[in-house]
Amino acid sequence: MKEKFHALTLEEVFKLLGSSPVGLTEEEVKKRIEKYGYNQIEEERESLFVIFFRQFNNPLVYILLFAMGITIYMGDKFDAAIIGGIVLINGFLGFFQEVKARVSIQSLKKLTETKAKVIRNGKEKIIPVSLIVPGDIVVLAEGDVVPADIRLIEATGLLVDESILTGESIPVEKKADILLEKDAPLYKRANLLFKGTIIVRGKGKGIVYATGKNTEIGKIAEKIKEKSPESPLNRALKSFSLKWMFILFGILSFILFLGIFQGRDLYKLFLLIISELVSAVPEGLPLVVTFVLVIGALALAKKKTLVKHLPAVETLGSATYIVSDKTGTITEGKLRVEEYTATDLEMLMLTAALCNDADEGRGDPLETALLRWLDQKNFDWKKARKAYRRIWEYPFDTNLRLMATVNKIDGTYYLFVKGAFETLSKMTEGDISQLEKWHDSLAEKGLRVLAFGYSKLDKVPDDIQKVKIKIAGLVGFLDPPKEGVKESVETARKAGIKVIMVTGDNIKTAVAVAEKVSIFRKGEIAILGEDIEKYTDEELYNLLKITSVVARATPEDKFRIVKVLQRNKEIVAVTGDGVNDVPALKVADLGIAMGSGTEAAKDVAKMIITDNNLSVIVDAIKQGRVIAHNIRKVIYYLLSCSFGEIFLITSTFLMNLPLPLYPVQILWINLVTEGVQDKTFAFGKEEKDFMAEKPKKPEKTFFDEKQLFDILYTAFIMGGINTALFAYLLKITSYETAVTIVFTSLIANQWINGIQSIKEEPFLKKPLKSLTVNPYMYIGTGIGFTLQLGAIYLFSEWIHTVPLSLQEWSYILISSIAVFTLIEIKKWIESIIR
């Protein structure tokens, strides 16, 4: 719609949009969804056609297809058909895996879709943001992400962060009862809210006038469609692949020149080199890694962890710090008034009733706890609210840590304020030493303490901090720790993960709670947020190493803590549920929002925990380590098998033996080993207590000295055994039979390698566990074995094989037992050394 809604009266807006204050009917909503579409900015989706042909968009495949063309030109159409068929099969496998991965990712996105509160048929209801249509009446509160472009109907103390559109970091005030000039620039449209902006303070109600791509942010998205940046793991894989390619080109160039020197047939030599290059390069590795991540994300979903940003799974297991809020994550978030002390009990209860936005169990947990306490004291708070009308309010300020209202009582203005004792004590006059003693006594018991004050006024205050008040009393709230949190903190500590509790609470209260759950222990310290700015980044990092609690922290404090840790190569997971947590959640390596948190927190987080409990986060890190370990296994398996083939080719060349494999056989090996086994690593279960290990840097998790040694050791075994076998067979049997035996032996050896890769510990140590830790590996091996029997006995002419006798199968069995035994011996030696 091109109308200037900021310049129209509300009556004109309602008429133009065909709506009313009671909202739309469901029938009308269906019509408008058909007309305007869903309220979402559509991603640029690739067609299945594009996805399929991208499987062949690989320089190595181009080379292979070029080689296939040469074989056709030379009249060898049979080999050309086989090579082309295998390329197509690999392409189809990649195509189906990518489509399946995309479907799974879309399913995960649906699980994390944000919700909004609307009025339809006069009733409030919570709906997915995508179902909002023009004409809908939307109700918004602090922490909400604005779900569409909206013309305000009501606004109370409304401040909005519009930095996503304007770049201005300072929140702007919004008002409903104003009209603007038609040509008013975007940043001056104070009666409009824009999709994607965040309600920082206050509340409001408005009518939707634009959704999806028609919103201001949608228009920007249409003009600039940026791709998501590559994840750290993908960048590491790409860097590794380039190095791997360089090594392979060096080796294969040597083989090519050696073959020419030995006088080998150039056509067969050239075709072999190209085929071996394609087989040896793990071009499908990124896709397999994605598959592992998707399966891991689905497993996390079952454990109450919803993954919004798939690459976040990669580094989940490498977290070194958890920066956690307190309420609702470490504690139950179910507050109750445990103790109170008053200088004026009547004014204390009146302040608790009037300076309070909760109602009948709905609202902020602290405010609903106050209402329950007033009920217990037989104080009629409903009657007080009706009698003493609120005429002004100052919504809760996260920096000042207070809320205030002005109510009219018998013709006199009264200011009622509640908040942190440190803040209210600065607004009082006279001796507060007794109040300080009461406050410390309550805080040391682990209670969250609020102060309540009041003052008579002549008018509504211009600056809340300049008002002088009397403190009517203090109330201590108990928020007991959640079950299982203490054990989870101890597990995290054992795993080398430090937990820092960052809270807005008083330092004494925070320390008392942290001690109960083992976050704060002897030798560690607690600091105040206001003291953080005194330290340089280097000093703060050293301080954080021994700090367990940061109290009275502002959003800026939490943000700086995260950035300082990251600059020192720490991998930081941040938990939060409020709008004040958004800055830290956004910059964290792993921003983890609570399922019951604000839409703003969930919108910027990479993960959402549906059960607001620190123990779930620790469990998720444990699962993340399992996922990282599975990726490590995939890398080991693919590279050890590839290098084993390279070793066999190189060694037979150096020995001036005939070619041990036909090019088609090399491609076939790639299909019946890696093609059916590598995907099964995604289903690997926890084989040991990963939380007993210290976290590793991502690059060390996937590529370290031990990984390189294991790859070369296994490749040497498989390549060496099959080289010796081939040399022996050439003396006692025909070349075709020798090639078929070595061809099948190498495949069987790679299956054995895959089965041995299931566990780090020896296979024969707890053999039952070896058979059950990943049963899919045996299914994949069974599929590969069936295909290989077909290659030998049904399609022998196509694959250049001959049928094998039972005695000839014994060579394959012996070589496989040898590979199994040598890998097993290495594992036993490593287990003894450990």
From TrEMBL:
Residue stretches spanning the membrane: 56-74, 80-99, 244-264, 284-301, 634-655, 711-730, 776-796, 808-825
Gene3D superfamilies to which the protein is assigned, alphabetical: Calcium-transporting ATPase, cytoplasmic domain N (3.40.1110.10), Calcium-transporting ATPase, cytoplasmic transduction domain A (2.70.150.10), Calcium-transporting ATPase, transmembrane domain (1.20.1110.10), HAD superfamily/HAD-like (3.40.50.1000)
Protein name, per record: Ca2+-transporting ATPase
Cation-transporting P-type ATPase N-terminal domain residues: 4-76
Main location: membrane
Gene Ontology cellular component list: endomembrane system; membrane
Annotated compartments: Endomembrane system
GO molecular function, one term: ATP hydrolysis activity
Keyword S-adenosyl-L-methionine: no
Species this chain originates from: Persephonella hydrogeniphila
Superkingdom as given in the UniProt entry: Bacteria
Keywords, comma-separated and alphabetical: ATP-binding, Magnesium, Membrane, Nucleotide-binding, Phosphoprotein, Translocase, Transmembrane, Transmembrane helix
A Pfam family matched in the record: E1-E2_ATPase
Lineage: Bacteria, Pseudomonadati, Aquificota, Aquificia, Aquificales
UniProt cross-references to PROSITE patterns, sorted A to Z: ATPASE_E1_E2
Membrane topology recorded in Swiss-Prot or TrEMBL: Multi-pass membrane protein
InterPro entries per record: ATPase_P-typ_cation-transptr_C, ATPase_P-typ_cation-transptr_N, ATPase_P-typ_cyto_dom_N, ATPase_P-typ_P_site, ATPase_P-typ_TM_dom_sf, ATPase_P-typ_transduc_dom_A_sf, ATPase_P-type_domA, HAD-like_sf
